Amino acid sequence: MSGPGRVCRRSARRWPVYPLIWLALLGVIALPSDAAPVPVEVKGAGARLTDNIRVHIGPVEAEQLTQPRQLERKLAAAISEASEALGFYRTTFSWRVEQTARGNRLALEITPGPRLRWAEPQLQVEGGAAERRAVAALLARQPFKVGAPVIQQQYDEFKRDLLETVIAAGYLDAAYRESRLLLDAEQETGTAVLTLASGPLYRFGDVRFQGSKLNPDLLHRLVPFEPRSPYRREALTDLYRDLQDSLYFNTVSVRTRPQADQTVAVDVELEDAPRHRFAVGAGFGTDTGPRVRLRWERPQVSASGHQLTTETWLSAPQQELTAKYRIPLARPLWQSVTASATLERFDIEDTDSTIASLGLFYSDRLSDYWYGSVGATLENETYRQGSQPRQRVSYLVPALNFNGLLLPKVADPLSGNRTWLRLSGSDQSLGADTRFLRAVAGHKRILHLGGHHLLVVRGEVGVITTDEIELIPASQRFFTGGDQTVRGYDFESLGPRDVSGKLVGGRYLNVASAEYSFKFAEQWRFALFTDAGRAFNDSDASWHQSAGIGVRWLSPIGQIRVDLAVPVKSDESGFQLHVFMGPPL
Description:
Number of strands: 26
Radius of gyration: 36 Å
CATH topology of the largest domain: Porin
Largest sheet: 16 strands, antiparallel
CATH superfamily of the largest domain: membrane protein fhac: a member of the omp85/tpsb transporter family
Structural class: alpha+beta
Helix content: 10-25%
CATH architecture of the largest domain: Beta Barrel
Oligomer: single chain
Strand content: over 45%
Shape: extended
């Protein structure tokens, strides 16, 4: 025992083990490997059938070439399955092994034969599901177009989609009584035969909430469907989304339990949001320079769902502190009463203003698109506009607002639009120095031109009905210019001026823009744009126009836009660099 042990120790010292292992591995790598897959050449089939055959055959090992019977059975099964999936049910083939400079190659010669075509399908949904809009729409766009090539995947996918659509519509016991793909090799046709029995319609049963301290009455008012209403899977998605959007909860889990009486019980597990939420944000815009946002929220001030939000915006030209107290009403997510207190100061161009205001507004979601609010603010404004002396006014401003927004929540939406209409005004009886009505309306739309091409258009008009514009507070007058209106000009630097050349603001507003963009990389767009606008008192006032180029970075945190704009037909020269982060609408 001791002898061999001494030999091993001497060998270990003379011939290190690891270098020998590495040399052996290098030798194996350098030698030709019989285990490498054999190249497969396919002739006689179209590109799609060729690709499908390659996928179904998979890798062919050199050892398989020595077992021709087993290899032929494998090839026959794979080629048959690949061909039938694309409608070729009479495919024949031959094969041989060829010698090449790099070794053996498997050569396949394919004869697809005639391709089967779809005949008129036999599709039937029995029961109430046939009358549901989603089911009827799916049947109307069935893929079995007479004369089109038979593709078995179309049959499999439609069969699955039809059953899922019927179940999602509330027919949870739906099942196929007949599901066949009839193939007639002589007639060279394929017929899809599907007969689906929908069964009884299920309805929503009890909705049970667990884990939240909010009042049960408030929780049930967050449910977007009525008790005993027809079951819809989409309604459960709406419930989950509404609970998340309410900001009351940290986590939401929704589960269903079908019952013997054709009802579906819904169990909702909730975890309340933290008592306090804090957010700190920073950004940059050419109009404002660096800006900081501080936000504090109380998602649940009380069990009745009252919410408190305090927010501070700080930038060089503008500072704002706002507190809002929101009281939910019958439809908590859409209907509410909000009381607000705001302290704002801005020093922009020839405007220096400080505003303290108290507001009370009723808000409601009028439709999937429109959101409206009505209320009033009590404003105390101290301002100096242009060469005018500093003034102070306290007045009540009733207001009516309508906003519409349709925009996919993605970094690069290919469609969308936003509409806004704002009416506000005051009177001497409400504390104002003069009666006025201020109206602003606008629309912005994203148009998909096909491929990577987009066109974004915007228009806005405004009017103040008064003959004494000099008595209207600075915050109510119209100015334009900047990265959100007329690029190429400083923020709110365009408007009527007094005899000393100081900005005084106008009674009317016109703004229009058009922007073409092209996506040239995964997260980048190039843009060409032109803007035009004016704030004015006289209808013959000239327009200010600009043109420029820009890039859009579709970043994970949102769209960041960088624009270079120059005035067109203007006494002003030079260019303006505009940087802005936010959604395209």
